[in-house]
Amino acid sequence: SNSISLDELLKALNLLIHGSETDKLRFLFQVYDVDGSGSIDPDELRTVLKSCLKESAISLPEEKLDDLTLALFESADKDNSGSITFEELKAELETFPEVMENLTISAANWLKPPDLDQKKRPTPRYLTRTYWHNNSRKLLFLCLYSVLNLLLFIMNMMQYAYGGPWLMLAKGCGICLNLNCTFIMVLMLRRCLTWLRATWIVRILPLDQNILLHQMVGYAIVIFTVAHTMAHVMNFITLTQADDSYQLWEYLLTTRPGIGWVKGTASITGVVLQVLICLMVVCSSTFVRRSGHFEVFYWSHLLYIWVWVLLIVHCANFWKWFVAPGVIFFVEKLVGIAVSRMGGLYIVEVNLLPSKVTHLVIKRPPFFQFKPGDYVYINIPVIAKYEWHPFTISSAPEQQDTMWLHVRSMGQWTNRLFEYFRQSDSQAMSNKRLTASLRNRRHETRNQASKNMFQKNSFACLNFNCYVDGPYGTPTRQIFASEHAVLIGAGIGITPFASILQSIMYRYRMRKQNCPNCNYSWCETIKDNEMKLRKVDFIWINRDQKSFEWFVSLLTKLEMDQADEEPEGRFLEMHMYMTSALSKNDMKAIGLQMALDLLAKKEKRDSITGLRTRTQPGRPDWGKVFKKVSEEKKGKVHVFYCGSPALAKVIKAQSEKFGFNFYKENF
After folding, report:
1. Is the pLDDT of residue 525 over 50?
2. What residue intervals traverse the membrane (predicted)?
């Protein structure tokens, strides 16, 4: 009737919550029986499946939709009568136990009030034993860092006890600023940290947390700076009350009182430092960096040079703290400039992928050596002459001639990069529009029946200069030291794992064995000093269907490499999730998921991605995922994640429950 009354709504909700399994099946049958005839014909089934595909943001050719409809219809129509009865649908659903289980979970359950026991607040994660065990290195380091600051603060306060409480507070904060303004630089010595990751020190110090520690030290600097400034202001007020030789503004904004070791400039430089430090902290906030204004963060952070210069002028002892790490820092910068200008790097190919992802293929110089998962800073003069931006290398080290970068358009620089090549591609196409038109016409004539699910623009770009600084190490270097690795990529967060998976499979192929008497082949257990991996679970979560194109060819190749049986089961297992797709808990989507399962078994490939691995709808149930991983007992489990920070918190909390080590890409 194109409308629903309150009584009808209440009756349906009551059925979904309290009804029996048969009642729910009958309700589902009515959803698919569009005309209410008591049976489902192929056209009705096609109509519902098409609606589900549209709601799930899945784009399939009409021929593929027909295949899905026929696969489900032929499986359910047991008597070949040309229609599906209720009994036939019930019998078909019973062959899918997981579907029957999901059928008992309906959207109506959201209307029920939460259970009383759910209102009890669980123990905060930071107070659990598991959290302290998994973060022992970081917590121990933070304790030592805090104790060192406290000791310096107390010792310097006692030295200036003669000057009153405000001077004592100012001097105590001052010595802590000397430490922190130097230590914050040490945490960004990327080349030194990359080298240290290959040593035993990585097992003692939280080197993988350097970005987090850098941010924490930055906030500590702000707190000490504000306290230091306010204490000096209060001390100046005390001095003006005791002696009216100088006014308060003269103490703060002039050199007349002669405070400071460089011509009395301590107060003036202190005011400027306060402004610069606060500006840097505000411009480095998450809402600035993640809102498409990375350039604001980038250029404001370069003020650190002036901060160090002013600190040397402001404080007589700061240079003693600064000289050793400062020399190392500037040597690193000089080495980076020298390396980036060597080798004559240039972009040889550009691929424009869906969701505004730019795939850069860069000529790799012979001396450029990196590890899987490393990242580089890249500068492309035609996009921005002085800007350097970090991106993960998505190709394997074993790929000798070229290096790949996948750049998602999320800010001003990345958007300019994508638009530059898109306009170049459009111009090239318009210049040869007749040739392109003829080629497309012939292509359409040959392939009218089957269209490619994924499309991309690809073109060569010879002698397109760029500069690369790096490579720099990341937490993912720990992968080859683990026994069971779980790699989780959300969206473009797959890029470090693309490099790692290629490198893993290269080593896997090196250990492949072939029987000399027949065509049987297998892979021996991979376990040596360089690579202890026994099992890899790769999980890729995407919002839409087109995003899978970024690496679908790579994943297809990895699946082909694993076509043979292995003594201990499959070495690499892939799990694909599409969050925009209707989940199996959605009553209307049950038929679509059954049809996709049936067609995948028939064609031995997924209809959404073309891979052998079936794409699952919705989001992973991390509790079930990690429980399955734990039950496999392949050794110590390490979880590696790259993607949105919000999802990282969820995955980290779940992995800690199972005692897994968690690593996150931080840069």
Report:
1. yes
2. 139-162, 168-189, 217-239, 259-284, 296-313, 485-508
